[in-house]
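Annex B. Sample input.
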Amino acid sequence: MKGWIFFLAGFLGVMMTGPGFAQSLLGYQGVIKVPSAFTTPDGRIVLGYGQVPGSTSLFKRLGSNVNHQKNEIYFVNIGFLPFIEISGGIVRYDFHTMGVGDRTFAIRCLLLKESKYYPQLTIGVHDPFSAYATRMSQNLTTSYLVTSKTMQLFKYSQLYLHLGYSNDLFEADQYLLLGWFYATELRIYDYVTFLAEYDTEMYNYGIRLHYRTLSVLLTWLDEGQSSWQVAYQIKLQ
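Annex B, continued. Sample output.
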């Protein structure tokens, strides 16, 4: 615990400039597991790596062999055109010895851009071809509609509210999200963001730290189990 405290203090102490970006644990624009309606800007690429503890494994409903196995997540997120976001990644668990891991793909489309009176609206589809995969690969499927709204609280802080609904449009053995989900983010000085969400099954909390094109996500899932992620943004234009 002391190591985390020193890490946070040091990171906050060297922050200098630059707004942040917000990647979920699986790489798409979002909070922790919950997606947001905000999409990656055109011409941006985000590369990232993270870990999820075994007690909150993304494969926890697949049986005792996979349950309680730490997950390692590698991802790439791309802003393609002003209204399309594409994500791809690999999720591995501790004892995985064959292949590269569970591959995941997501595409999100901006339907309505946020304005003073209207929230942002985005539709997303994750792993739509899971019905044709083996049961061990049907883990992260979902399709959803999500809306997000920005509220300016003070001069240097914003509150982001997210609400969405995910369904079982695509057949799968396990769904990443299924039902209503919601989240909130409090961003201060563009450098620190406090996170809270309900991901259709459990409540998660976290903090996201930004330093120029680098983002560090620290989260506490369900019963206080910690996970983390490091993401780096590349601007092509």
